[in-house]
Write a structure and sequence with these properties.
This is Short chain dehydrogenase. This protein is α/β, with parallel strands linked by helices. It is built from three helices and four strands, in the order βαβαβαβ. The protein has a single domain, classed as NAD(P)-binding Rossmann-like Domain (Rossmann fold). Strand 2, helix 2 and strand 3 form a beta-alpha-beta unit. It is globular, with a radius of gyration of 14 Å. About 35% of the residues are buried.
Amino acid sequence: MGRLDNKAALITGGASGIGRETALLIAKEGANVVITDIDESKGQQVLAELRAINRKALFIKHDVSREKDWASVVSQTTQTFKQIDILFNNAGIYIIKSIHG
């Protein structure tokens, strides 16, 4: 039994780096995991890794900078796991603009 048995986690930017490692770590502690990322290929790879350790998991292609997409992410997560117990906003965005002083 893990410390996070049957908890539902939503991790943005979960297809690589810290997000991927966090998803795998909390899955090993018993959590079911939803990962979102703009990189569908890497997201599907992490999804397979999560399922290989016998965890329920879902990948959602998601650009966190698009506010209108958030409702769909929350809806898909709660439809699948009924709740969100853990939210890790790991995805980063950057905006290239000129700065005038």
